[in-house]
Amino acid sequence: MIGNRHIRLDVVDSTNRYARDLVREGPPEGTVITAQSQTAGRGRLDRQWLSAGAQNILASIILYPTRPMEEWGGLPLLTGLAVCRAVRRVSPIEPDLKWPNDILVGNRKLCGILVESGRIGEKSWVVVGIGLNVNQVRFDGSYRTEPTSLAREAGRPFATDDVLSAVCREMNELYSLWKGKGNAPVMTAWKSASSMFGKNVIADENGRRTEGIAVDLGEDGSLCIKLSDGSIRYFLAGDVSIRKES
Ligand code: BTN
User: What are phi and psi of 185, to 5 degrees?
Assistant: First the structure.
């Protein structure tokens, strides 16, 4: 069960790095590592993840998925959906999902997810890193769009442990569904929790930009974009921005 074992750290470079190293010792599936602060928090695409000390959730979850690796692209989306459901459960906030795994309120980022994976001998592992802004209300740093937090949106603080418990509960439910049935039901649920479909988007894949309308998710977790010539393209990785006028 996700969250049955919880390792609480005060300061660490990155909970994902810690979790990856811990995997060698064979901790049980669902082990959660949290920290009050990180000195080298990592984001997707080699970005930094900044978080004020002791205010937010900085968590990494260790999983040993046994489904075929082609289906693992669903795990970041599954995590985003779990966080989204947890936020709805503990607050009046209605977050939105942006492919592949950003959780937004309006156009402000509330949570980021970094999924890393590997193999030790015969055993495959996945570390799911979650940075969820809970009580931070001031974000100093150079952001394209200033992030947000639960406290900023709801106008009151939240107990990070309660929010984390809700995340673990929702993760457990969705991960069990995924273990039994694979990506399809998770992708269907993700699509109905996201407002991005039907909107004009720009997909950035290593600097190559493609513009079109987000129309669907592939069963492997890819984003399906319809280009202006009517052709369809699937993106498995990269960054997507939603055009303002859409
Ligand atoms: C992103 O949006 O770029 C993903 C951010 C993921 C941040 C979390 S915080 C806990 C875990 N440890 C890390 O170093 N990164 C993830």
Answer: -70, -30
DSSP state of 168: H
pLDDT at 22: 98
Is 102 a member of any domain?
Answer: yes
**So what's the pLDDT on residue 142?**
87
CA-to-CA distance for 70 and 221, rounded, in angstroms?
10
Are residue 90 and residue 165 in the same domain, yes or no?
A: yes
Residue type, 123: K
Task: Classify residue 43: in a domain, yes or no.
Answer: yes
Mutate to test the pocket of ligand 1, among 7, 8, 9, 16 (most ligand atoms within 8 A of CB): 16
* Distance from C-alpha of 168 to C-alpha of 235, rounded to nearest angstrom: 28
Same domain, 133 and 113: yes
Cut 0.90: pTM above it: yes
Q: List the residue whose alpha carbon is closest to atom 7 of ligand 1.
A: 131
Pocket test for ligand 1, best of 109, 130, 167 (most atoms within 8 A of CB): 130
1 found inside a domain: no
- In this predicted model, what pLDDT tens digit does every residue of 179-204 receive, in sequence order? 999 999 999 999 999 999 999 999 99
- Residue 131 Cβ contacting ligand 1 at under 6 Å: yes
- Tell me if 147 CB under 6 Å of ligand 1: no
Domain with 218, as residue range(s), is 200-242
Q: What percent of the chain has pLDDT over 70?
A: 99
Q: Which atom of ligand 1 is nearest to the CA of 13?
A: 14
Clarify whether residues 182 and 204 are in a common domain: no
Q: State pLDDT tens for residues 13-28.
A: 999 999 999 999 999 9
- Rounded to whole angstroms, the Cα distance separating 105 from 120 reads 38
Is there a domain that residue 134 lies in? yes
